Amino acid sequence: IVAINLLQKTLVDIFNETYTLTKQQENLVTYAPNISKTDELITFNKKALIVHNKIRGLNNFPIGYTIINGIRVKIFMSELTNIRAGKTCTINKITSEGIFINCEDYVIKILEIQIAGKKNYQFKNI
Q1: Which residue in 6, 21, 43, 77 could disulfide with 111, CB within 3.0 to 4.6 Å?
Q2: Per-residue pLDDT band at 126 (split at 50, 70, 90)
Q3: Displacement of CA 109 from its chain's centroid (Å)
Q4: Average pLDDT of every residue of the chain
């Protein structure tokens, strides 16, 4: 709600040309490093929310990936579940709804993947 109010006020200021610009202080400037191939690797040994947010953060570019049985698999979309995880970093089950993978605390459901050299595959509940 706060963001909506701020956006409405800001848009009104822009359209009315009543906004003020603030110069950034150069001594406070920071730079984000480039994302490396190792940063794109999705591992499931963390909490499900952290894994899910990493997948979301790497989608639409550069796209996160994992290795399943020695095959590189890009992961485009996931969903959190309320299923308690079993052994971390293992596939819980594969159904028509997705690939369920055990994270540190809960199971994450993978909804869209791309196996190396193949087309994207979306599970049917998307």
Answers
A1: 77
A2: very low
A3: 13
A4: 93
